[in-house]
Automatic annotation (TrEMBL):
ATP binds at residues 76-83. Keywords: ATP-binding, Coiled coil, Motor protein, Nucleotide-binding. GO terms for biological process: microtubule-based movement. This is Kinesin motor domain-containing protein. The lineage of its organism: Eukaryota, Metazoa, Spiralia, Lophotrochozoa, Mollusca. It comes from Magallana gigas (Pacific oyster). It comes from the Eukaryota.
């Protein structure tokens, strides 16, 4: 998986000049015809930091929460906006790291992620560490100054790999704690300046955000790391490395030179069996996993709108090589962690056996130091060889000059020969040692290559085994669930079968008993009948009577038929139904009663015909009026429902508008504060500019500058005044709404008093009048709407109609028994009961609506009180501070509190800002 490179163009600043970039889609160049940087995504000048996070960082956070190591490399020239992209300015313009912390804790607290039924997640822990690499010195940014050593060393272990020894690690409670720790760490960065620029141009900042979380059935938590790296300025890639070392020293730009060399080697060998050295600098050692290792890496290139073409071409070449670097990210569960730890331990052991480790990394700095030492030794060896040749020349001259003394100095010649032989032996032994050392290195590299291949093979096998295991677990879980369901159904069927079998056996036994008993009774009855028939035959034979009378055969046949009928259990319908004569008799009796009732009704109609007609006419009129009142009540209720619906909709729209207005007011407040802050910053810059250039003539420029500063002060005063007017307008609106509410309450109280007087005058004592007027107090919890007047009026009309009907009944002497004759099938008592029930339900529903409306009004009143309190606090506290700041600025610029210039006032000189 290659490293992705995205770009961001910084907006132009004042006095920077026009933009000179050439943009074609997602590619960008410094000038026409120059090298183009091919980017995955390009954020233009109008894109904010949140847009960069949403399009280029949010997916990295999802991978981080899934268990992968991810990295964001923030790079670019100095003053291209790298620190602003990472840190931001304020809460409204937050950088990438605060946004990452906010969204990380938000997603961890979300139910959709933590309560996912497919994967069980629990006990998440977030920690953070920050280090700075400057001039090959590692500084812990989370360490309080004075609490420990100034600089730390690198260390390599099997569990952590290459890491900063004794580095502080802070466990975060929430996003606010993380952002506080981050701001404090950024404030502890090195602020020193050298002859080659401030330290920020040569320093690299590394931020680690670690997430530990138990996932699924794993015995140990998954460990994933989100690394944010701010690289040094890339403008020095255009210069030669040797010249940089000679000019700046061997360590100042060592991190950038080593990083460029490492990226070149990684881009040239994208295969998994590569063997690359990361020991060029401490920065490359710390980025061993982020560049070419177990990490999903994405680079963010910050681009200046006006850049040098040569410098930008070097940056484009570095970006192109970086996009060709291939990483191998995996999920960091417990098994992968233990496997990587095992292979790290083996590699460290092999290094110990081969003699190249495990020396402390502070003592063996890197490969460049070794190469530099070898180069120095070679130079010294050449010098020694030159000197040796000169000595040989001098020796030959001396031998020619003192030829006569050759025999006398034979011992000296022999010693010289022995010295030469010893030198040759030493040289030969040195060559043999170098050859042996090279062989050992080749064997170590081959072993490392084999181990890397084995790691990759085992990783693939592990991933395949995990996939097979997940499939088998899933199939086993499904089979277990199906088996449980089938077992449950089998138990239910077995229980039902046992119950049915038991009932069936009980019924069979009862049936057999009844059948046996019935058979026994039938046999006994037949025996009795046969005995009776035999006796009757004997009697007939003895008495010699008529054989047709009391025939025993007929008696036996009748009894047998009775037994058969009872044994079958069937009864004929004719035996159940009554005879036609009985039916006719009952029918005649009923019709005779009906005729008698009809005759009585006709007689009573003749006697009370006129009164009945009058009463019916009056009743019809009353019923018509009652129906009209019902229709009117329904219409009024419908209108009230429509008005309530419209009122609810209007209130919803009003709440939305108020919410939108509050948001806009807060936004205007924030913009006003930002605007005032910028104006104050401009005034400070102007004061600094004037202080720097106060040595020149100040004739015409002083007047213009004073006028310009006065205009800025007027703008600041105007912004403060607009904020004061906004708050005063909100307070006036709140007071006006409160006054209107009080007037409505007083009006409602007056109508209540009039309604009670009307009810007392009409003598409606059976109606609940409610509390007395003196018991009603003016409180926020008892404010009702104006709909109560309409409801009370309708109730009064209904009570008036009921009283009129009662008066008519008393006048004409109509009782409950007489109401039966008025209209068949309808009773006034039932009608009035239904009417009372409807009125009761309507009253309860209306009271419920009024209670809801009252609660809503109370909540709105509380919200308005809080807003008024907040506005008053703002006016009382912030306005005084703003006035003090204005007076302070006036004094700094040589003005008194009224804004008039003070003669002879000392000029304010601001120190140099870092």
């Amino acid at each position: 998986m290659n490293i992705e490179v995205v770009g961001r163009i910084r907006p132009s600043i004042r006095a920077e000049g026009p933009e000179s970039l050439v943009i074609q889609g997602q590619s960008i160049a410094a000038k026409t015809g120059g090298l183009f940087a091919r980017l995955t995504n390009l954020h233009r000048k109008d894109s904010g930091t949140y847009d960069v996070y949403k399009n280029s960082v949010d997916d990295l956070l999802d991978l981080h929460m899934a268990g992968f190591n991810v990295c964001l490399l923030v790079m670019g020239e100095s003053e291209s906006g790298k620190t602003y992209t990472i840190q931001g300015e304020s809460t409204h313009n937050a950088g990438l790291v605060p946004l990452i912390l906010d969204y990380l804790f938000t997603k961890l607290a979300g139910e959709q992620y933590m309560k996912d039924t497919r994967v069980r997640r629990q006990n998440p822990r977030v920690s953070m560490s920050m280090v700075e690499v400057y001039n090959e010195l590692v500084k812990d940014l989370l360490q309080v100054p004075g609490g420990g050593g100034a600089y730390l060393d690198l260390h390599e272990t099997a569990e952590k790999g290459v890491h900063v020894k004794n580095c502080s690690k802070s466990f975060l409670r929430d996003a606010t704690d993380g952002k506080t720790q981050f701001r404090q760490g950024m404030a502890r960065k090195t602020e020193a300046s050298t002859d080659f620029g401030p330290a920020a141009r040569h320093a690299a900042t590394i931020i680690h955000i670690d997430l530990e979380m138990l996932v699924g059935e794993n015995p140990k938590p998954n460990l994933s790391r989100f690394t944010v790296v701010e690289l040094p300025g890339l403008e020095k890639l255009n210069e030669d490395a040797a010249i940089l070392r000679q000019r700046e020293g061997p360590t100042l730009s060592k991190a950038l030179i080593g990083l460029n060399s490492l990226v070149t080697l990684l881009a040239g060998n994208p295969y998994a069996d590569r063997v690359i050295s990361y020991s060029d600098s401490k920065l490359t050692q710390l980025l061993r996993e982020e560049l070419g290792g177990n990490c999903k890496t994405r680079a963010l290139l910050n681009i200046k709108p006006q850049s040098d073409p040569n410098t930008f071409s070097a940056i484009v070449q570095f970006t192109t090589k970086l996009s060709q670097v291939k990483n191998f990210p995996i999920i960091n569960d417990s098994y992968a962690q233990e496997l990587i730890t095992q292979y790290r331990a083996r590699i460290i052991d092999l290094r110990q056996q081969s003699g190249v480790g495990p020396a402390p990394m502070a003592q063996i700095s890197n490969l460049n130091d070794v190469k530099e030492t070898i180069r120095q030794l070679e130079v010294e060896n050449l010098k020694l060889k030159d000197e040796n040749e000169r000595l040989k020349t001098r020796l030959d001259g001396m031998q020619n000059k003192f030829g006569s003394m050759a025999h006398t100095k034979t011992d000296l010649s022999q010693q010289l020969l022995m010295t030469e032989e010893e030198k040759l032996k030493v040289s030969q032994s040195l060559v043999e040692m170098q050859i042996e050392n090279n062989k050992i290195r080749e064997e170590a590299e081959a072993t490392k290559f084999e181990l890397t291949n084995k790691i990759l093979m085992l990783t693939n096998n592990l991933m395949e085994a995990e996939n097979d295991r997940d499939k088998h677990h899933k199939s086993a879980r499904n089979a277990r669930e199906k088996l449980q369901e089938m077992e449950k159904e089998r138990k239910d069927l077995a229980d039902e079968y046992v119950v049915l079998k038991t009932n069936y056996l009980a019924l069979v036994r009862e049936h057999e008993k009844e059948t046996k008993r019935n058979d026994e009774l039938s046999i006994e009855l037949l025996n009795l009948v046969n005995a009776k028939a035999a006796l009757m035959k004997q009697i007939h034979a003895l008495s010699d009577s008529d054989p047709g009378v009391g025939d025993p055969e007929a008696e036996v046949s009748r009894v047998k038929a009775f037994v058969i009928k009872n044994s079958t259990g069937k009864v004929k319908a004719d035996e159940i139904l009554g005879s036609q004569t009985d039916r006719s008799q009952v029918e005649n009796t009923l019709f005779n009663n009906k005729r008698r009732y009809e005759r009585d009704m006709e007689r009573m109609k003749k006697e009370h015909g006129d009164d009945r007609q009058k009463l019916e006419a009056k009743m019809n009129a009353v019923q018509k009026e009652l129906q009209e009142s019902r229709n009117l009540a329904r219409e009024r209720q419908r209108r009230l429902a429509e008005l309530n619906a419209a009122l609810i909709v209007a209130r919803g729209e009003k709440e939305q508008l108020e919410l939108q207005l509050n948001r806009l007011q807060h936004k205007v407040k924030d913009l006003g504060e930002d605007y005032r802050g910028r104006l104050i910053k401009y005034v400070e810059d102007i004061a600094e500019f004037v202080d720097k250039n106060n040595a020149g003539p100040e004739g015409r420029n002083s007047g213009r500058m004073r006028e310009y500063v006065e205009n800025m002060h007027k703008d600041i005063s105007r912004s403060h005044k607009e904020r004061e007017e906004q708050l005063s307008l909100a307070a006036q609106q709140y007071r006006e709404s409160k006054r209107t509410l009080l007037h409505k309450y007083e009006e409602l109280l007056i109508h209540y008093r009039n309604l009670r007087l009307q009810c007392e005058e009409r003598g409606l004592d059976d109606i609940d009048m409610g509390p007395d007027e003196t018991e009603l107090k003016l409180s926020d919890s008892e404010i009702n709407s104006s709909n109560l007047r309409e409801i009370t009026r309708l109730k009064g009309e209904v009570n008036r109609l009921r009283q009129t009907l009662e008066n008519y009944k008393n006048k004409y002497g109509v009782s409950e028994e007489d109401d039966i004759r008025m209209k068949p099938g309808e009773k006034p008592a039932e009608t009035w009961a239904a009417l009372r029930k409807q009125l009761r339900e309507y009253t309860l529903n209306t009271q419920k609506d009024l209670e809801e409306e009252r609660a809503k009004l109370m909540s709105e009143n509380i919200v308005l009180k809080e807003q008024l309190k907040e506005s008053q606090d703002y006016i009382d506290h912030h306005l005084v501070r703003y006035k003090q700041e204005i007076v302070k600025l006036r004094k700094m610029l040589g003005y008194d509190t009224d804004g008039s210039p003070v003669l002879g006032a000392p000029t304010y000189r601001k120190g140099r800002r870092k």
